[in-house]
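#random but structural
TW: two for the price of one
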Amino acid sequence: MDGSKRKSDGKDRSRRRFRPDGTPIWGKRQIDGPGVWATCVKGKEKQAVGELYDLFDSLATELWPDGDVSADRADASDNDSEDDDVEAQIAKEIASMKRPRKEQRFANCQTDTPCVVFISCKRPVDPVQLVQKHIQNISETGVMQTRHTLRLTPVSNSCVANVPEIQNLCNRILTPFFAAEPDKKYKYKIELRVRNHNKLSRDTLIQTIAKCVPEGHVVDLENPEVFILVEVFKGVCGMSVVKDYYTHQKYNVAAIAKSRNEIECSDAAHIEEPAPAATGHSTETNEERNEGA
């Protein structure tokens, strides 16, 4: 009986697997907090997650280079001070093996929906700044650095999709943004996208958010200066505030790259187009001849 129990325990331990941030893989990661919603080619969700990991890690390293350096430096200094104490060094190595795994900056949250991916972001990463940096790079170079990703929508935070929680989320996101320039009165538009959600109507969502916008700012559907991005997916609502959303093709990275490359091709063709050779013949058109007659 003891043998079978030990065998069973060993089997359970062999099945135990953890993500890099220490969370077990059998528990689905909840869609919560700040992150980036992404749409991708159907059937390429897994590939899109992989390429977004690589892209976001590269951008985050550039934008927040000192994110995890302080802890590493502290460990290094401790190691230096204990070089002469072998027993203490061994004890420290054992303790480091038992230490929880370092939490990663980005984590994929399962959506169980074709073409839709959500990558959560951990501090100090700001999803809006992250996406805008990528958009800027594409606008300058025409290179997407991804193959399957279509559109990116950053959300500064998320909540349960009900009216009280959405009101609370608005207070946490909208109030600080508009308070940053108290004398500025913005024209704004609510960009709402709803997927797999039928409890709150679009009108209810829009009215709830609009009531939370501080007084003095007005709705302008034609020429807005500020865009309130709202993503409602199943029972989760995410929100952020951005500018130049229409200028950058609603953050459709494929469209931005295509537009940038078309401009380059057009400019190159214009530069290389040879000037017409001068001849001794008249360039008078048939229409001009008829007028002269």
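TW: number two ↓
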Amino acid sequence: MGSENDGLDAAEDIRVALGRVSSEHPEEFFNIANDLRALGCDAAAVPFYEKAIAAGVVEAVYNLALLHHECGDVDRARQGFVTASEHGDAKGAFMAAQIFEACGEHQAAALHYARALELPETPVRLARVLRLLGMSADADRIIDESVATSWESAVEYALRETTPTYEGLEILDRHWTAGEHQVAVTMALLLGEAERTDDAEALLLVAAEQGDVHALTNLGSLWCDNGDLEAARRAWHRAAERGDEVAANLLERHGYT
């Protein structure tokens, strides 16, 4: 079985060979690199990505950065994601922002998140960083402008003290109807506040049946509040088996462990 150095030597041999190759279709280097990754040959994929980048295949910048990230080379990954971000790649911008945020470099994180706003998962993360920078008004504006396109923004907006319950429910219901069932727990909370407990239970049941472990845990809590402790225990037990720590803590708190 070959060593890691053998793999690096082979990659260098490929790099040298590719230096002698020209192609009218540089995207083929990109495709070969992706195929090599799919086969688990990460080291061999690197020179093909490099050749594709040199030939102007912008997507290769992100993919090579992702390879470095998955291999634990954070510095090269960050450099690659920043380059992808500067070329207008939203996914690269998002990944660069996440790395900067994890390092506490919030100004840089905000810059790159702002370049990735077309991704629905971005607004709440940009808002979080803006608040850390003392820009709460801008953070609120980002959330306000994305409630229709991001279920996470919709959840944050619905939970604001200044948002009327009926308005929060209307916004969340649009995401629920669109199949974004991650809003179930928050929606059930607001239904409970509106004294629509039966609707909350029905909603959580549907979400739990579709695999939402958090909905299952909250369903157990609702049953517990209603006095059905055995049903609550079963729900928490199922959720805990699937790795939900809140459910495990509830089982322990109620003496079911």
